[in-house]
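Cross-check.
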Amino acid sequence: MKVAQMNIILNWVTVFKTYFRVFTLPEGDNLLKKGKFWITVLILLSILVGVFYYMQYASNVEKEEIVQAGIPIGQDYIRKYYNAEFIYKNNEFIGSYVNSTVYLHGYIKGNEGQVISIAYDYKKKEVLDVSGPDWFIDSRNPRKNSDY
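Predicted model, tokenized:
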């Protein structure tokens, strides 16, 4: 019985060898190496893309936190010096390699067509400047000293 089992196993091994030999290219080892290389490249590329997207996501989250911290400071500044209610619409970051300023754009309640911009320094957490129409800037109390 053991000899019969050994013959069956040998027959199956021969069948598998023949089967795989038919589907193996002459440069089989070389093809296998190329396949491993491209799989490695694909995995590394996927990791790099994932890291890039994570960095973008982290940057956007950080910017959103900065803006959300700056909106109430800007609104308080407008309320204190202009006696008006600032409604935030959007923002614009100046590259952090230049300075730490974000512009908060919005309008004054009741004057939706007039754009007001608040220059906010997010490192110092203070308003640097406010720009908008002349009628609004002239309403500042107390007035800012200007050289021009």
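The first helix runs from residue 2 to 22. Residues 59-137 form a domain with the Nuclear Transport Factor 2; Chain: A, fold (CATH 3.10.450). Passed to J.P. for a second look.
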